[in-house]
Structures
1.
Amino acid sequence: MRLRLERLEDRATPSSTRLFALSQDGNSIVAVYEATGPQGPSGNPTSFDGTARLLTTINPYPGQTGGVRVALGDVTGDNIEDLVTVPGSAAGQVINVKVYDGASLLASQTKLVTEFVAMNGIGGQNGTVGGAYVAVGQIEPGSFAKEIIIGSGYGRSPLVQVFSPNGNALIREFAPYATSFGGGVRVASTECSGDLADDIITAAGPGGGPHVRIFNGQNPAFIVDEFFAFDFRFTGGVYVAAGELDGVNNRGDIATGAGEGGGPHVKVWCAAPQQRYFPKSEAFVSDPNNRSGVRVGVANLDLNQNRQSLYTGEGSEWVLNRFPVSNNSEPRLRAYRMDAFVGGVPVQPGTFNATSVMSLERINLLDPFPFGRAGGLFIGV
Ligand SMILES: [Ca+2]
Ligand SMILES: [Ca+2]
Ligand SMILES: [Ca+2]
Ligand SMILES: [Ca+2]
């Protein structure tokens, strides 16, 4: 019972750390930032407003150019979020998961805590490109350290694996979609089922419908809920993140971003206790004609007391680079909060079941990649 109480406190108070990590398709460099700015005026969604500090850059997979997928979460148990990386798309890629200690990163030092091989070592099958996706969640609340969730990448049968915080044990493994689907499995984690242990959210990559599923983290045989994030005919795939965005109830909220070929369309899905998830808020985050896809992240970088913010980054994945980012949508980080709409491009009223739309405030980062941009932006927050 004590564990559960502490878990609730954890949900209600912001993380003490403000680390975030960005990576790019087309190279293998991760830029690790600390959000250092003061919180904006009351009611103003201004986040760290240009005062984020670049702590360090990491090259987890030298010589590889398929990008690095990143996630943040405390897997060492010291209450400071750590950085977890997996390789992005590249032929013949071994899925080597790496964990970097967050406390060291805050001191601008790179300390590899552990590394291990996921997806049974296979990134793609039959010579296809592969890579993987990563999230961190409190799947087993008996240990304070969080577990590491890996989703299979483009080009292999869909698979989710959950590893113990130190990477030594594979504690869950399941196929979230039909085995014939090879579009990849994007993953996120938050508490959706009401048992106070985090659950596993999957979003289908390109090639199928925009299918999002919430699996009970305690037993993935049970599906908490599922929905199509966008029109069921849209086959560009879905990016997913999760956290507490509306500040309304204790069920976690899910953010979805349209993949390559769709507009820069994001939605936030919420649910009352015992109810289905529904799209509570949505927006186009940049030029509606941009077709490069939009990645999403949820975090508490501005230390708001009761809700997190949504972060987006645009750009087509290296393997699927059919839709270059348009001039109006350069791959930079943008931040949104569910509140009154203050910018961006609103979705037509009456086309969704919303009680609010997201406010928009673009974070004034100078340039997350001063050494040049190659492709789209992955967000780890
Ligand atoms: Ca840690
Ligand atoms: Ca745990
Ligand atoms: Ca749960
Ligand atoms: Ca909520």
2.
Amino acid sequence: MEIFKLIYTSMATCTVDNNVLSSIEAVAGEVNADLHVTGALLYSSKHFVQLLEGDRNDVEDIFEKICRDDRHKNIIVNLRASSDERLFPFWSMAVIDLDATENELEYSDLWNSIDLSKAIREKTAGVFMDLFSRLSIRVGQCVC
Ligand SMILES: Cc1cc2nc3c(=O)[nH]c(=O)nc-3n(C[C@H](O)[C@H](O)[C@H](O)COP(=O)(O)O)c2cc1C
């Protein structure tokens, strides 16, 4: 089956604490799981970067809802592409708060290796694909 991938970046409009991320994780855990949409959501200093992967219509439907969510703004699509495999087959949505102390050490090398504003500005999809590819190897076999 062809796997459609969508990556976007956005900016939080509210204080993003554990409650906000847990509520996103809970909804995604139900909705995405039902549609067999998988992916990862990273949060760091007001920025979200999310990868959604699955059937094209399902991914676009979920993304439409996400776009209407007033907890973030400046939503910029970085990548819409098809491939033949998932990066996060075991994750309805791996939500990682890079500002949390316990994650800072574990994932900071991934995040710090990218120039976020440059990647957003220049829409360099390869930067985010590379980030998610490397992340998928780290979270690999975990089931959320
Ligand atoms: C950054 C961000 C990422 C989100 N990711 C997802 C997601 O992967 N799946 C999902 O169903 N909802 C996600 N949501 C929540 C949706 O925006 C929305 O609140 C949820 O789907 C419920 O929509 P509804 O009330 O229209 O049914 C996300 C929200 C934000 C702010």
